[in-house]
Amino acid sequence: MESHNSPSTLFIVGTPLSDEGSLSKEAILCLNSVDFIIAESKRNGFRYLKQTEKRESVPVFFLDPFRESEWKELKGLLEKMAPTGAKVALFSDTGMPLLFDPGAEILKLARELKFEIRSVSSATSWGSACALSGWEPPFLVQGFLNRDTAIRKQELGQIRSLPYHTVLMDTPYRFEALMSQVGEVLGPDRQLFLAWEISKPEERLLWGTARSIQRIAE
Q1: β-strand 204-209 against 87-91: which pairing, if any?
Q2: Which runs of consecutive H residues, i.e. helices, occur in the chain?
Q3: Which of 10, 37, 150, 177 is the most buried (most CB within 10 A)?
Q4: What is the pLDDT of residues 169-179, one digit of tens each?
């Protein structure tokens, strides 16, 4: 670490969208140089860290599962590091660890603590999906809808009349329910683009109506 009263740096490190992908040279160099690492989950975190050097001597904090007591611990650690010139890396499972991941809270806290923010960028799933769709902007990145069925339908109702493409994200086990509600609220003939498991062997890119894509989900 550098001398006291020197601001610390948070590096936002992108990872491959595919679980089997390798870190970029820039990501490996960054992870090799930091004093503290924050990873989204142990499942892929350890696999990525094996691609780097000297990881046994660097503390690693995992955000998944996200517990209130551990969040307080991490917050305290970052508060202590903020004025010390420390280098901290944050990386996710797939893509950039922000917006729809616990990493958003880390970025917010780091900015409040006056960390310098740097990036080692990679693809994001929703950004790649927008590009792959071939549709012209603007895009509204809605992300994950509310888990409550009634509230989710209300959110879809608000989307229905918007004059631009809306990006929705969800987990595989809720996909069938989401598609059913999309067809119900937005209409069965609503034109959709589905990007499934981007860059993985199971990748599927589908263009069609809500009705036709829903049939695939059933």
Answers
A1: unpaired
A2: 25-33, 42-49, 68-81, 103-112, 125-133, 149-160, 175-186, 210-217
A3: 10
A4: 998 888 889 99
